[in-house]
Amino acid sequence: MAKYPVTRTTAPKAKPDESSLGFGKVFTDHMFLMDYTLGQGWHDGRIVPYGPFALDPSCMVFHYAQEIFEGMKAYRTADGSVQLFRPYENARRLNNSADRLCIPQIPEEDFVEAVRELVAVDEDWVPHAAGTSLYIRPFIIASDAALGVHASKTYIFCIICSPSGSYYAAGINPVKIYVENDDVRAVRGGTGFTKCGGNYAASIRAGQRAEELGFAQVLWLDGVERKYIEEVGSMNVMFKIDGKVVTPELRGSVLPGITRKSCIELIRSWGIEVEERLLSAEELFDAAETGKLEEAWGTGTAAVVSPIGEMKWNEREVVVNGGQIGPITQRLYDELTGIQWGRIPDERGWIVKV
Ligand SMILES: *Cc1c(COP(=O)(O)O)cnc(C)c1O
User: Fold this and answer.
1) Atom of ligand 1 nearest to the CA of 258
2) Is the CB of 126 under 6 A from ligand 1?
3) Nearest-CA neighbor of 297 among 268, 330, 267?
4) Helix, strand, coil percentages, rounded to 5, for the chain
5) For position 244, what pLDDT does the model report?
6) For the chain, where are the alpha helices, taking DSSP H only?
7) Cα of 255 from ligand 1 centre, angstroms
8) DSSP assignment, residue 17?
9) How much distance in Å is there from the Cα of 324 to the middle of ligand 1?
10) How far, in Å, are 30, 135, 164, 239 from residue 12 at the CA level?
C-alpha cells in the first residue's frame, strides 16, 4: 500500500542518452513534496510532476540558508530490479542535520518510504548501463516569508532524482590534491557534521583555486589549528600508513559519510586495523616521505572511492603508491559497488529494495 498519493505528469519527458549522462543535469518526471507547519507537523506528503517552486522573495532560505540535504542513489541490478544502499543512514543523518539547523525532524520510516515510492514511480528513469545510477537528492528548506532571524515556522521537504553517469567512465584514475592553508570548510561547534548548503557555499572558493592550480580537490585542514586533516573536497579521506588505515575522527567538523562508515566496517572485517584519530598534515607528509604512506583515497556516494595519486602541501609534493590505485582502495571499490549493484550478496542488511 502506497503511503503517498501520486499525481502523474501528463507530459513525460524523453529519457536522456545513457552513454552521456554526466551528473545532476537531467531530472526525472516526478518529485516528492511534503509541508511542515508549526502546530500541525509534517503533512501532505505527495508525489507530483517535477517542476519549479513559487516562493516569496523574502523566504528565509534565500537569506539565512536554513537548509539541509542528503545525497544517495538507486541502483539497477542485473535482474532489472532497483535497490537503495543504507537509506536509513541517510534518514538518520538528515535528522541530525535538522537538529543542528532547528529544522523539524522527519520519522525515518516516512523518509525511506518517500524515497522508495518516488523511485518506484520514476523507476524507468533508473539507467541500465554499467556504473550508472539514479542520484537522489532529498532536501528541506525554510519557507517562512519573513526577514527576522529565527527558526522558520514552515518548511518544504522535497526529493528530486537525476539519472547519473558512471563516475569512472574513463577508468579509475588517481587524482592530484592540494592542502588548503587559508580557507576552512567547517569548525567544531559549527555545521561541519551536517549536510547543509552553507558548508558548500564556504568551500567553493578553495575548490576553484585548487582547480586553477591543476588539482582535482582540496585537502581540508581543521579550522582551529589548521593542522589536522579533515576531508578531501566533499569526500571523507582515508590513508593506509604502515599497515593500518587511518581516517580523521568525527569531532563535529567532519561529515559522517555513509561510505566512510561502510569502508571502516569492511576494512575491519578483513582483519585490517582502522584508527579514527587526529592526523596532522605534518605526520601525513612525513609518512609519505619515509615510504610509510601506502595508499590514500577519498570516500563518498558519488565516486564510492577516489584514489589519491599525488598530494601537495606548501612546497612539499609527494606521489602515493606510484600514482596508481592501491589494493585496499581497489578492494573497497569492488566490494561496495558489488553490493550496490547486486553482484555480491548483501550479508550486512545494507540493501533496501524499491
Ligand atoms: C556527503 C558528504 C560526504 C560523503 O558522505 P557519503 O554519505 O559517503 O556520501 C563527505 N563529506 C562531505 C562534506 C559531504 O557533504
Assistant:
1) 7
2) no
3) 330
4) 25, 30, 40
5) 98
6) 60-64, 87-100, 108-121, 197-212, 258-269, 281-289, 327-340
7) 6
8) P
9) 24
10) 9, 19, 19, 46
Mean pLDDT of 14-22: 90
pTM (2 d.p.): 0.96
| Residue with cell string 598530494 | 311
Nearest Cα to Cα of residue 157 among 31, 52, 55, 263 = 31
- Residues 36-87 pLDDT 10s: 999 999 999 999 999 999 999 999 999 999 999 999 999 999 999 999 999 9
Query: Whole-angstrom Cα distance, residue 242 to residue 228?
Result: 19
Could you give the dihedral angle defined by the CA atoms of residues 250, 286, 182 and 207, in that order, rounded to the nearest 10 degrees?
Answer: -70
| CA-angle at 138, arms to 137 and 141, nearest 5° | 120
CA distance 50 to 30: 4
| C-alpha cell of residue 289 | 616521505
CB-CB contact of 167 with 303 (8 Å): yes
Delineate the domains of the chain, giving CATH numbers in brackets. 18-166 (3.30.470.10), 175-340 (3.20.10.10)
Q: Report whether residue 207 contacts ligand 1, using a CB cutoff of 6 Å.
A: no
